Fold this sequence. Notes:
mainly alpha
Amino acid sequence: MDHLYVGISGCVLFVLLIFLRVPIAYAMGTVGTLGLLHVYGLQTVVKFIPLEVYSHTSNFTFSALPLFLLMGYLAYYADLSRDSYDAARAWFGKVPGGLAVATVYACAIFGACSGSSLAECAVFSKMAVPEMIKSGYHKRLALGVVASAGGLDVLIPPSIIMVVFGVMTETSIGQLLIAGIIPGIIYAGVFAVAIVIFCWLVPSWAPKTTGVDTSWKAKLAAVKNLWAVVVLFGAVLGTIYAGWATPDEAAAVGVVGSLLLLIHRKKFTWEKVKQATIDSAKASAMIFLLFGTGSIFAAFLSVTGVISSITEWVAKMGFPFWGVLLVITILYLIMGCFLDAISMMILTLPVVAPLITAHGGSLVWFGVYISMIAVLGAITPPMGLNCYVMKGAMGSSVELADIFAGAMLFLPLMLLITLIICVYPELSLWLPRMMTR
């Protein structure tokens, strides 16, 4: 049987397994192993697969993943999320849709201490959503803000998605992390302006907030409480930007900083450290399992000629750069309905990254762009992991349909932000270029 035919059959089987709700890691591992068995035979595969998985998961740069996750969980136990929300509420509590705007900026601030949008959604669904609903906000507005603003954690460093992209494409992780800062600020700004305008036009969705102290005394006091966030963000990103530390070393600095903050605030207990370690270990294990099985599936696609065939087909079609980018965007939007961001990257980057570089595109910019596309997948049904995390955190108090409906309100804004990142690549490249001077 022709190898390419085997590869296409494997892709069809993989899609079938996904629709049967087989976990993506197991689906990739199963199809990849069966395909390689057909091509190479048992004796070769038994030797090849362990080496392939090891070579893809033993990269030292991957040590930044569990460290950034651990830093985020420790920062949560140090109440940095509460500080972020209180500060944002003091500054924006009295503007139209003030609590929703405060939630957006709180997500942005806490994103500087956490690398996972899922963790951010879980935290603010418990903290901000009940506060908004109690103040008379429309439920879908309250839920949608948290589900979509959680994506700020993907752009604002440290970002797990950026680390994954950097390792898979051999792009500077330090430059990728720095590249997300300005797009992240734009993300928050667009959301804030849109919320204010909407709530000014439709005040019934967001009644004026009462009982929130927005005096200058309260604002300054709230800003002072953010010193811990500033120090932690500066310690991690400052050392990377200055060239004093690699991303994995900076992640270790962040873990130590979060631990010291926990002790300084007298919130340190061994139970909290244990729980934070367990949570980060669970998330890391899931990511590494995806990487391991993804490497098997990628090897299968490579040896059967699927990857080279797709690349050659796109090249023969003669698409200009914008045409290639449009095809990739549509592909990711469709896949985002069924797969999580890391799974999409593992499946597609071996194909799409060479297409971008072949057209002279910057992988640093593309990392920011594709991360933004991945954020869209995190809120679109039926997969929408951010929405499912919120449902799990809030239980029976909300309906999943309301979460998705609320998130869809913000989808046009997220598409607008994606377009801005696409049209103005310098927004992503200016700070990384400053690093190399």
